[in-house]
Amino acid sequence: MTYLPKPKVHHPDLPRNALGLTRRDYEGSLSTLCAGCGHDSVTAALILAFFELDIPPHRVAKLSGIGCSSKTPTYFLREAHGFNGVHGRMPALATGVSAARRDLWLVGISGDGDSLSIGLGQFCHAIRRRVRMVYILENNGVYGLTKGQFSASADIGSKSKKGEPNQQAPIDPVLLALSLGATFVARGFSGDKEQLVPILKAAFRHHGFAFVDVISPCVTFNDHEGSTKSYQYTRDHYKPVVHADFVPTHQEIVAHSEEGGVLDIRLHDGSVLRLRRTERDYDPTSRDAAYAYVRRHQDQGEVVTGILYIDSSPSEMHALSGTVETPLAQIPYEQLCPGGAALDQLMDSFR
Amino acid sequence: MPPTDVLNPSYYHRVVDCQWACPAHTNVPEYIRLIAQGRYSDAYLLNRESNVFPGILGRTCDRPCEPACRRTRVDGKPVAICRLKRVAADLRDDIRPRLPRAPSQKNGRRIACVGCGPASLTVANDLLPLGYEVVIYEKLSQPGGLMRTNIPAFRLPVEVLDEEINYILDMGVDLRLGTPVESMKWLLQQGYDAIFVGSGAPKGKDLNLPGRYDSDKVYIGIEWLEAVHFGHVERIEERVLIIGVGNTAMDCCRTARRLGGRDVKVMARRTRPYFKASPWELEDAEEEGVQIVENHAPSRFVVEHGRLTGMEFEVLQWYEEGGRQKSRTVDKVIVPCDAVILAIGQDNAFPWIERDIGIQFNEWDMPIVDRQTMQCSLPGVFFGGDAAWGPENIIWAVAHGHQAAISIHNHCQGIPLTQRPPQRMTLTSTKMGFHEWSYSNAYSPAQRAKMIHVDLSERFQRLNIEVETGFTPEQTASEVERCLNCDVQTHFTAPLCIECDACIDICPVDCLTLTTDGPEEQLRLRLTVPARNLKQPLYVSSPLKQTGRVMVKDEDLCLHCGLCAERCPTAAWDMRKFNLLIPYAGHE
What we know:
The structure holds two protein chains of two kinds. Chain A is built from twelve helices and twelve strands. Chain A is of the alpha/beta class. In chain A, strand 7, helix 7 and strand 8 form a beta-alpha-beta unit. Chain B is an alpha/beta fold. Among the domains of chain B are: 100-199 and 351-413, FAD/NAD(P)-binding domain; 204-346, FAD/NAD(P)-binding domain; 494-571, no CATH class.
């Protein structure tokens, strides 16, 4: 945390994107999280992803619940829409925003407490509903805001700051999302933006529910020896399997797939997601294989990262519900709610 | 790249751009902080330690520090360092009790200085407190050299000059005014332990063009200024041409405006970017109605019936050929005038040094002087100021004086001259609390304060009225906050870093990068923002323990705001005040 506002001056050579904005134009208010919090790095990665995708800040809606993670939408895109809701209820908000404003970019930021304890049901059903959004879970294994109790993602044997080991089995959000049918599942690490930024960019281009679990160490309550969510532990057990490069629509595709473990996936909007596999036999298009791989390496104590599963032709909530292209909020009220007579007529049709 | 050795004082010194650029290495950020606290006397004395004449320099310095100022690269305009120095000088209390004193018991060594300009005065200032007897020979009737005779009083009031010169003279200089040294051989026979030549470059260059000697209305700039100073000249003709566009030309044209010159033109051979005069001096001259004419090379004085009526110029056009600027003549014009002042440079003149006494001269008839020790080929004879390598400016003369004093002290102690006392440094944390630092780390977006000038009408009524009024208290308060405190260094302790990226994310000017090591040219291009300013160094840490990467900092634009240190969870970054300990004569 810092008290001084970040000075407005920036480097004169700072690159500008297609909108003529610099990365600095995507910042938000001053972070009040602890100095060194992984969440601030996720914020920085999000800023870069939005900047590099040329997304206009005012076309984004930021949603969150309660917790350290849920404070972070304040720290990026000060021009965006935002709603900070009740604990664990971010998915419900996201569903509503998506229903009314399908033209906005949606990003939901949650934590391991918000999504895996109080909001676990909400999280599961958002996946089932296939809300088109980027769902980021900033995962640090503790309840930081209440001073360091184990969260539902803490590994068995991981030690608290006072030295006590955790005894309850963890919920792995990646495995959960895979088993519930999420069409984009990835895991990153706040300490590796080179990997995280491309993951986020791919997630924003995914035309469905994109889930990104980010190991984001809590410097204050969970960065000690014996913790399995510390910077040191994560780096020691880090296993990137798929690295992503995002190729925009206007760019020509040069290399061919299957060469050196490269796999090109054409996305909904015509752009291409190029995956470079460091593990040759890893298949990110197979849900079962992804599940088995992550499960197996989890047993070996490894943190598997990268775009772990992607469905290149996903369906999402609006397709399932057959809604119109126009955002519902922009349809005239009379048309959206045709009145009592129309309702009676509808009811009659069911008789 | 090898890890940066920040314990070598020159690394952090280089980060303090102003101090690095200053020939005397004045600790600028520290004195600006003292001014901010209202400690004007302390600020003055800190200045005096390195530059000896804060009041004089606060008005007249050539300011090598300002173009170097990091603030220029950040928002286009440097901190008004020079004029803040003047604030300290103007608002100080009587600091005489705090000045060094000469001991009553002398050390038995006698030093002679030739010329009483800034170089000799600095030598005296450094050696008197050590017990030396210093004799200064001055050909004029007043001390100060060109500071007095060439800088007009409307830029440098006589009282300021007298006060600061007297601080030194009052320590007990044996000053012999009106006593030119006419023979070095004679001086060598007077039994001095060392001789310092600080006689300046007192000869204005002449311009031998047709008609030069057909009129008595052609003056040599520095001689003319000297004559004005001593009251020998009180008027000048209405239409005046100044040939040359250095700082002397600026003093000449502005003085001419005050002595009756109505149509004053400065004639320059080249275009503005190549002018020798400082930009602010050009602005001041133009404000007073002086016209500056580019691309005119003088070719002939036009004298009709014994009267100067004008000057003929070749109008030049400049172009580049093979990387060099070349000119061609495109026209010839006659510019009418009643008087011409030549301000095209100064020469050294050593007719009084015999050539058979062991002092070697080079092909340009300049004594051969060692750059480090200031000694010429005759042991015990030292040169400094403009006398050493030709015209420079006051701050260089002071720097030379300090070095010569060290050499003279060594010489008298029988220590080899090359054995110089080393530069040292202290590095102190400025951390006061969680988010508190002992310096004002918030970035101030204020614009550079603009110096207020006395009205034109008032200016021309009296020759000696000082044009610049000095900063108001409000201007001072705003200007001190523009200083980025570049001496408060971002000090990195590599073993503490957990590579959380917090510092990189918060840095407003993207100085920091965590990356794999590599050769400098390659590393510079791989940074968060490529480091293209090759004049500014990169800091590179030793490899970090978690990933083996290195922390790289491009020093170029760092605001020294301390946000990296505030965001650092392990205090790997700390803001530490760097204090360069500059050795002077008598220091071990």
